[in-house]
Design a protein that fits this description.
12 helices, four-stranded antiparallel sheet, seven-stranded mixed sheet, Aspartate Aminotransferase, domain 1, single chain, alpha/beta, binds pyridoxal-5'-phosphate, Aspartate Aminotransferase, domain 2
């Protein structure tokens, strides 16, 4: 028996363990100080009533002989696939039912999709980046090259002439909160079609886009169905981080890939629980949409408070407008970890050092709007007292 040697090439991620260690140390030395956590990428508001009502009803169905269901279709129940199809139609994206696959979240499918691609493909990943894209490819032994995201390009790298095969794009972006325009995405789509490349488009934060001119789906771009797969999630949209449900769109225009993905899913996946899919379906009802938008507006208002503070303090940042993330340049040329220590020590605010997301993250810092209103306001008052002079 031989082990997968590629695992040796994975870089250990010390980001969140180091944060936890530093925070715990600080708390034990300063037990009377109140820490405010603006580093988390997890939602904090509960599932909305439309969702929990639908799930309760589904639980009752599962407990009655006449309505009990066993194994469901691996690619998801049609009631949910249809709801997603209609959701896309509202953004003028026409999907066929067979293009919609229900997943247990975007993370799993972002990793699983690599089953469909040969090891020899060259993978392009933006830096800084959501670490899953890099690690899943390293596990498979693929070569990864990076597209530099930086202040000059507003953390939105564009294609150059280098030939790559698999391209990851995430918009609105984690960790930077930057959002591509339709014109910018069109350039990526044209590049991919010219080079016979595939774009793996992560739209996990699409629900934060509040300007109809900005794309929520790559399929709003002409010819994207010839070169892109889209991964989305109800995690941030509707608080499903613990409940687990997402969806992946694999266009039939991609030829074999749609059938290959169906084959892969029916072989290795047994679907998302019926109860969860009924809850997910409720997200897309009128009531569900109204209720989730209350939660999204709550986070968006927090993001506004953070963004205003950065402006008041003269600190450069991106994100915060169509994203829960604010990506800021560390003041006084501090490194990411210096700034982390400084904020913890002086203001008891915990954020995420940008250096943990890639080389280009050094010198930057991520704050999130997923905290409570009260804590966000208090944290920003503390922040202002340090930098607004
Ligand atoms: N994609 C991005 C960019 C994320 O930031 C996250 C979670 O933080 C995910 C995907 C994972 O989503 P899910 O909870 O649906 O697996």
């Amino acid at each position: 028996m031989n082990l997968n040697k590629n695992y040796k090439n994975l870089e250990q991620s010390y980001l969140f363990s180091t944060i936890a260690k530093k925070v715990n140390e600080y708390i034990s030395n300063n037990p009377d100080k109140k820490i405010i956590r603006l580093g988390i990428g997890d939602v904090t508001r509960p599932l909305c009533k439309a969702v929990t009502d639908a799930m309760h009803k589904a639980v009752d169905e599962m407990g009655a002989q006449e309505t009990f269901r066993g194994y469901g279709p691996e690619q998801g129940y049609d009631f949910l696939r249809n709801a997603i199809k209609e959701y896309y139609a509202k953004n003028n994206v026409k999907l066929e039912l067979e293009e919609v696959f229900i997943s247990d979240g975007a993370k799993s499918d972002l990793g699983n999709i690599l089953d469909l691609f040969d090891k020899d493909n060259v993978v392009l990943v933006p830096d800084p980046v959501y670490p899953v894209y890099v690690d899943t490819n390293i596990m498979n032994g693929r070569k990864v090259v990076f597209a530099n995201a930086n202040q000059e390009n507003n953390f939105l790298p564009m294609p150059n002439e280098e030939k790559v095969d698999i391209i990851y794009l995430c918009s609105p972006n984690n960790p930077t909160g930057a959002v591509y325009t339709k014109e910018q995405l069109k350039k990526w789509v044209d590049y991919a079609n010219r080079n016979n490349a595939i774009i793996l488009f992560d739209s996990a934060y699409e629900c934060f886009v509040s300007d109809s001119e900005l794309p929520r789906s790559i399929f709003e771009i002409e010819d994207a169905k010839k070169c892109a797969i889209e991964f989305c999630s109800l995690s941030k949209t509707a608080g499903f981080t613990g409940t687990r449900c997402g969806y992946t769109i694999v266009p039939t225009e991609l030829g074999k890939l749609n059938k290959m993905w169906l084959r892969r899913q029916t072989t290795k996946f047994n679907g998302v629980p019926y109860i969860v899919q009924r809850g997910a379906e409720a997200v897309f009802t009128e009531e569900g949409m109204k209720e989730i938008s209350e939660n999204l507006n709550y986070y968006k208002e927090n993001a506004k408070i953070i963004s205003k503070t950065m402006n008041d303090c003269g600190i450069w940042f991106v994100g915060g407008k169509h994203s829960p993330y604010i990506w800021l340049k560390c003041p006084n040329n501090m490194s990411s970890w210096e700034f982390f220590d400084y904020l913890l020590e002086k203001a008891q605010i915990v954020g995420t050092p940008g250096a943990g997301f890639g080389r280009n993250g050094e010198g930057y810092f991520r704050l999130t709007s997923f905290g409570s209103r009260e804590n966000t306001i208090e944290a920003m008052n503390r922040f202002k007292s340090l930098f607004n002079n």
